[in-house]
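Now for our target.
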Amino acid sequence: MNTQIKTLLLLFNVCIVIFTYAISPLSFSLGDEPVRKVDMNASLAALENDSADVQSSDSVPLIQQKVTDVSPQRFLFVGDSMVEPIAHYFWNYAVENGHELYTVTWYGSSSYSWGGTRTLEHFMDEVKPTFIILCMGSNELTLKDMNTVTKNVNRVLEKVGDIPFVWIGPPSYTANNPNGIKRWIDSGYNDQLIQLVGADRFFDSRDMQMDRARDGLHPTMKGAVVWMEQLATWMQSELTRHPVILNTPQQKSTIQNLTVMQTKDKGFY
C-alpha cells in the first residue's frame, strides 16, 4: 500500500473519530481542559435558516404592487381658475363612483394665496376630506425665483399634512402643445413642483392636448373633458401614490358643492 493511500485512510479514520465524538454523549479532557464539541444540531439548524432566508428574499418582490383604495372618498378640490371647468366633469365621476366632491375655485389665486392664509384650513375643517386635489400654478408659471416657489408650495403641503393628495400642474406652452400662447412659457415651475410634491403625486399637464380658450391657457369646456379623462385615468393607475376608483361616468348631472371666490377676495385668516 503506497504512502498516499495510507495518508487518506488515516485522515478518514480521524474524521470518523471526530464525528463519532461530536454526536456521542461522552467527553474527555486533555489535562484540565475539556475537548470542545461542535454542536451539530445547531449547525444544521443554522444552515436551514440561511436557506430559508435566501428563498424568502428571492420570493418577495422589491417593489410591492400598489393597492387601489376602493372606499368612497370625500374629495376637496381647490385652486385657481383652472379648477372650475375641470370640476364640472369631476362631479360626474364622483357621482358615478359613490364619492363626494367639494370644490373651491379662487380666481387669480396662487400657492402664495393658499399657503399664506387659512383658506385651505377653513375648507378642510368644513369638509373633513379624505383626499385633496390641488390645482394651482397657472398664475405663477413665469416666476423665476424658485426659492419663493418652494416656500409657498411647502406651506400648502404643510396644511395638507398626511391626507392623500394630488397636485394638478398648470398647462403651459410647449413645443408639443402649440395650442398655447408663448407668453405662457413655463420658467421651471412644473419641474420645481415635481421635486417638491413627488412625481407620483403630480399630474403633469404641460403637454396636454386639449382645446383652449382665446388666452391660450385655460381650457374650453370641451378641453376640460379631455383634461379630466386623462386625470381620472392617471389617478387610478400605478403611476400615482394613492390610486382610487374613478370609472368613466355613464350619465351627466349638475355640479353641486361649488364655492367660487373672486380675485378681490382676501381669503380666510
